């Protein structure tokens, strides 16, 4: 985690509605949020900034969330092991092993459950 009193979270979500919901929830947890609407932007931002956590939709344009996670894990970055929480409206169609095999630490289905999201953010940033 960074030395600052807040947690830096990269939110990778192409839906503005869900992105805004995540921002509102995470602000209550003392998080500073950076957003990306597609997987390539996630990778570009990840190369330039340090984060404590990534919350990543698996169905992103350009580079999907699973592939973006694989690229992050395979990178030579000092942050290649950053915690990544996958989110998806289609998670029930994918086995848990798809998320874990891609390198995600955890995942949750949409619609997002506030309590579970807060639990996961605390689990990976405290």
From TrEMBL:
The keyword Phosphoprotein applies. Transmembrane segments: none annotated. PROSITE patterns: RESPONSE_REGULATORY (PS50110). InterPro entries: CheY-like_superfamily, Sig_transdc_resp-reg_receiver. SMART domains: REC (SM00448). Keywords: Phosphoprotein, Two-component regulatory system. GO terms for biological process: phosphorelay signal transduction system. The lineage of its organism: Bacteria, Pseudomonadati, Bacteroidota, Cytophagia, Cytophagales. The modification 4-aspartylphosphate is found at residue 57. This is Response regulatory domain-containing protein. It comes from Roseivirga pacifica. PANTHER family: HYBRID SIGNAL TRANSDUCTION HISTIDINE KINASE J. The keyword Phosphoprotein applies. Residues 8-125 form the Response regulatory domain. Pfam families: Response_reg.
């Amino acid at each position: 985690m960074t030395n600052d009193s807040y947690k830096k979270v990269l939110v990778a979500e192409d839906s503005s509605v869900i992105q805004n919901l995540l921002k509102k929830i995470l602000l209550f947890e003392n998080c500073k949020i950076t957003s990306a609407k597609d997987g390539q932007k996630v990778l570009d931002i990840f190369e330039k900034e340090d984060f404590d956590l990534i919350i990543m939709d698996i169905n992103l344009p350009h580079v999907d969330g699973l592939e973006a996670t694989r690229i992050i894990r395979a990178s030579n970055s000092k942050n290649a092991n950053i915690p990544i929480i996958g989110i998806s409206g289609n998670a029930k169609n994918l086995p848990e092993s798809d998320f874990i095999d891609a390198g995600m630490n955890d995942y949750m289905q949409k619609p997002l459950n506030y309590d579970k999201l807060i639990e996961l953010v605390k689990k990976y940033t405290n």
